[in-house]
Amino acid sequence: MKFKSVLLTSAFLLGGFGGVASAAEVTITCGSVGKGQELCKSAVAEWEKNTGNTVKVVSVPSSATEQLALFQQILGSGSDDIDVFQVDVIWPGILGNHLIDLKPYSNGAENDHFQPIIENNTYEGKLVAMPSYTDAGLLYYRKDLLEKHGHSQPETWSDLASIAQDVQDKERAGGNDKMWGFVFQAKAYEGLTCDAIEWVDSFGGGAIVNPEGDITINNPKAAKALDMAASWIGTIAPEGVLNYQEEDARGVFQSGNAVFMRNWPYAWSLAQGADSPVKDKVGVMALPKGGEEGKPTGALGGWQLAVSKYSKNPDAAADLVMWLTRKDEQKRRAIEGSYNPTIVSLYNDPDILAANPFMGELKDTFTNAVARPSRATGANYNKVSNAFYNAAHSVLSGKVSAEASLSKLEKDLKRIKRKGW
């Protein structure tokens, strides 16, 4: 069955960058959280004006895990139903065989972007994706509540837990019985891989698999990190967090019912929206250290745009990709949606820094974030991540200790690896 026939799509008259010679129809997936799809639609509408082409914007699941499974199914079948895919930073090594080389269309634009991201998007010598925005996990906090109850920003996870408990208890005593100390992403999906790798790395426990491909996750520091996170469930975090994705956490925090939230930068512009109950009450900082010997860290995120090699209109599709990732568009997305640019010079742009003060202050967080082991594990990354987030979820759910869960995880990863990734 054709993908078009089973997914509801929204068609828009959209358009162009490089003046593609004849009108074409291009199908794209873009922006499933925050203002992502809204910004995508307005940008592609401009592209249509320039080219006379039309674009269908296809809705996809909000879960990155479900998106990847869907994209693998579509591309694996050789379907031409989607021309341009928005792909996670960890997917170029997984999907690269199905994507065209964008270098013939870039005119050297890739040289303006953070080079580690360009390297990440290079598969077997081909530039298979152009960066749209970069990401790292951040800590959002209610600066008004910390000030009210005499607390400063937390330096360690232990600090965060004690502050969260104190403010939660006092706010509940004051009448807000819905207040929680901390919300984050703990559903068993890719988002939990990001959260959990941050906890582990902040304690010095590594990143599941090291760059050489060795399985390193079964260690005492990683176990300490996961046991710590499990202690939050039902105390400073609601039991329901075990099924939270990004938007679930944002909904609780933005409604005024959480002291701290772990999320991506996109949440800033929404928290500062005119209709936001927490407008002007929110601060943003790097995630805490895992104790005095630990380090602040954030999972490397971000999304790219790539063109299917099965597309019937690869020239138009590549032209659209270059339009959507150009400097002016990245600046607009940063100002209107707090999406972090991948073009280095934009971090000195006064308009961007005025709209998102934390982008300048936390540049190191964005550029030195902990990467998930997608390059080391290649096409097996999805299996590795699935095993890791399920192992973490079992600990958070109280079903098993971190030590036992990581021991089992190590055995599972060895089976996945066998003689090599």
Q: Can you characterise this structure?
A:
This protein has 421 residues and is of the alpha+beta class. It has two domains: 187 residues, 3-Layer(aba) Sandwich (D-Maltodextrin-Binding Protein, domain 2), CATH 3.40.190; 216 residues, Periplasmic binding protein-like II (D-Maltodextrin-Binding Protein, domain 2), CATH 3.40.190. 42% of the residues lie in helices and 14% in strands. It contains 19 helices and twelve strands. A four-stranded mixed β-sheet has the order 9-10-8-11. Strands 1-3-2 form a three-stranded mixed β-sheet. Helix 1 links the parallel strand 2 and strand 3. Helix 8 packs across helix 9, helix 8 crosses helix 18 and helix 18 runs antiparallel to helix 19. The longest helix is centred in the middle third of the chain and has 17 residues. It is globular and about 65 Å long. It starts with 8 loop residues before the first strand and ends with a helix.
What is the CATH homology-level superfamily of the largest domain? Periplasmic binding protein-like II
What is the average of the pLDDT values?
92
Content of β-strand = 5-15%
Strand arrangement, major sheet: 9-10-8-11
Structural class: alpha+beta
Number of strands: 12
Number of helices: 19
What is the third-level CATH name, the topology of the largest domain? Answer: D-Maltodextrin-Binding Protein, domain 2
The coarse overall form would be: globular
Helix content: 40-55%
